[in-house]
Amino acid sequence: MGDEAIQATNDDAASCKRFAIQQGYWRDPYLQFLVKAAERKAPEINRGYYVRTHGIKYLLEDFIKKTESNCQIISLGAGFDTLFWRLKDEGLLPKTYVELDFRAVTSRKCYYIKSRSQLLDPLMESCDGVKNKISIENAELHSPRYHIMTADLRDVADVESKLTEAGIDKNLPTVFISECVLVYMTVQKSSDLLKWIGDSFPTVLYINYEQVNMADRFGQVMQQNLRSRHCELHGVDACASMDTQKNRFLSVGWEGADAMDMMCVYHKLPPADIHRIERLEFLDELELLQQLFQHYCICWAYKDKANIGLSSIGFA
Asked: Which segments of the protein form a coiled coil according to its record (predicted)?
């Protein structure tokens, strides 16, 4: 039951993002082809997903620009994320983009891509006018730059095998992204994965969105709610504080790490953006928004053998 419950969190997150997009929080013309129209969500949830989406993209764009797109993106537990298409529209595609997730998730995503031209056609476009060859079978998708593959992230050998199959070059600057993924693994399993990444990729950035401050009363209630849905947070010990979030990287040899709760990230957004989204919906429970934002964070860590300036990536 555990893995099925974890997979269901993808549907929840995608549905929340779809509703926030419908409300005008940000533009994403692609998610509608992966997720049906969503039921109404609370304003603090919509605002939370906006800050989550844009906080991650802010750090990612800094990395892409520093590498001049001569890089790789690996999204762990990507679910129904549409980032590949959005980066393509903005001319920010990396050399290779790989998504890894459970077979039950990749199977559905591959089916939707195959059956919807709005998703498939952009994958087939190439700069020389010749259509790219796309392979979609056995719950996986392969194209010249974009791959969706099945993998058990708790099995480092499986992850390495899939990335090798996708043609990942370990010497190329690489960014890993995960959103509420590591927390479902035991601390030992996530530690093994992060150590392997740090040991294998000499120039690498990791962007992790996840729970934090989970030892207080609000955090305990969050855990109880998830447990009632058969979602056990096996890695919650790493989410006790900002320090534990950073130390999970530093303790396995990463060069540097930083973290910021989503309340702080929210205040780092451009004032015009904050003004715009605050006008979209009336929010009368500011205390609830603050509690929610203080229990999620973005942590980013790096190793920078190529000395391309990864230590300077952060929220200005």
From this structure: none
| Structural domains of the chain sorted by starting position, each given as residue range(s) with its CATH number in brackets | 2-305 (3.40.50.150)
Contacts of 109 (CB under 8 A, 6+ apart): 34, 79, 80, 101, 141, 148
Taking the C-alpha atoms of residue 213 and residue 294, their distance in angstroms, rounded to an integer, is 7
Average pLDDT of every residue of the chain: 95
184 phi, psi to nearest 5 deg = -85, -5
Q: Which residues contact 146 (CB under 8 A, 6 or more apart)?
A: 84, 97, 98, 123
- Three-class HEC string of the chain: CHHHHHHHHHHHHHHHHHHHHHCCCCCCCCHHHCCCCCCCCCHHHHHHHHHHHHHHHHHHHHHHHHHCCCCEEEEECCCCCCHHHHHHHCCCCCCEEEEEECHHHHHHHHHHHHHCHHHHHHHHCCCCCCCCCCEEECCEEECCCEEEEECCCCCHHHHHHHHHHCCCCCCCCEEEEEECCHHHCCHHHHHHHHHHHHHHCCEEEEEEEEECCCCCHHHHHHHHHHHCCCCCCCCHHHHCCHHHHHHHHHCCCCCEEEEEEHHHHHHHCCHHHHHHHHCCCCCCCHHHHHHHHCCEEEEEEEEECCCCCHHHCCCC
Q: What is the CA radius of gyration of the chain?
A: 19
- C-alpha pair distances (Å), 155 with each of 71, 104, 200: 24, 17, 15
List pLDDT tens digits, range 79-119: 999 999 999 999 999 999 999 999 999 999 999 999 999 99
Please give the structure tokens belonging to residue 52: 């989550």
Q: Which residue has the tokens 């903005």?
A: 90
Q: How many CB atoms lie within 10 A of CB 238?
A: 27
Q: Taking residues 273-280, report their average pLDDT.
A: 94
